[in-house]
Write a structure and sequence with these properties.
The protein contains ten helices and eight strands. It is of the alpha/beta class and about 260 residues long. Strands 1, 2, 3, 6, 7 and 8 form a six-stranded parallel sheet that branches. A two-stranded parallel ribbon has the order 4-5.
Length: about 260
């Protein structure tokens, strides 16, 4: 399916830019208004920064937080896995999904994918989708300049395309936090930001029951769920939390008459 064309800037960001231009024009025309102009521009920057701190927000541009309506109508949900591939966890996730006929989307970190190209190929060969989760998963992704953001995206795109024949169509920012600079870069590449309907916080919580409860509360068709197959948090018995939760999650998906499909 060809990537959809869309405007490189959201209405919110375009309005912000227009406000900057208007504010500078007003300042040039009436310098005495500078306190008001500076206050307005500062408030605008606060709003832009706050919007980027809301992973599920759409003010900075398109953001897939649920599956499209037609997918939901078919009773589908999306299982997504971040931070892999991991040599211990990823193969076991793949086996669990295969055993139930479920498909997922794996948002890979480029550095880890480059170390385990066999796992990247295996993910694709088993019918799952691959997503882009940056090359190095920088903690300060929110603060990166456009050139660095582009490199973090493009290096993963090239690697996955070389390994699997097609580049990812979806991008997920580290922790879901991004700046207003991201969306224009995604738009030019025909990519879509994808976050989640709900997440279990399995990378931080070591209690599988708590993680499962967060994911299952209100589970419905169209939901986009987040787990981790990379850098896993472990339960008290040493089991990676995502592996402890996934069987129960798959059971409940089946019980509710739903099916897990990859992001298209």
């Amino acid at each position: 399916m060809a990537a959809k064309e869309r405007a490189p800037l959201s209405s919110f960001v375009a309005l912000s830019l227009a406000g900057h231009v208007a504010g500078l024009g007003a300042l040039a025309a009436a310098p005495r208004l500078w306190p008001w102009c500076v206050a307005a521009l500062a408030a605008d920057h606060v709003a832009l920064n706050a919007a980027g701190l809301l992973p599920r927000g759409r003010l900075l541009g398109p953001n897939l937080v649920r599956l499209p309506r037609e997918e939901a109508a078919r009773g589908r949900v999306a299982l997504t896995f971040d931070d892999g591939p991991d040599p211990e966890v990823t193969p076991r996730v793949l086996d669990l999904l295969d055993a139930r006929g479920a498909k997922g989307t794996f948002f890979v970190i480029g550095e880890r994918a480059a170390r385990r190209p066999d796992l990247v190929r295996e993910i694709a060969a088993r019918g799952h989708a691959l997503g882009n989760h940056t090359w190095s998963h920088p903690v300060g992704f929110y603060f990166l300049a456009p050139r660095r953001i582009a490199r973090e995206i493009d290096d993963v795109q090239r690697l996955v395309a070389e390994l699997c024949g097609a580049a990812p169509r979806h991008f997920r920012a580290p922790a879901g936090i991004r700046s207003a600079l991201l969306e224009p870069l995604l738009a030019r590449r025909g990519m879509t930001l994808a976050t989640w309907t709900r997440r279990g916080f399995d990378a931080a919580c070591g209690d599988p029951r708590t993680v499962a409860r967060r994911l299952l509360r209100g589970l419905a068709a169209g939901d986009l769920l987040l787990l981790h197959d990379g850098a896993p948090r472990r339960a008290p018995d040493g089991t990676p939390v995502s592996l402890a939760v996934l069987p129960r999650l798959l059971d409940e998906i089946e019980r509710r008459g739903l099916s897990a499909a990859p992001l298209a």
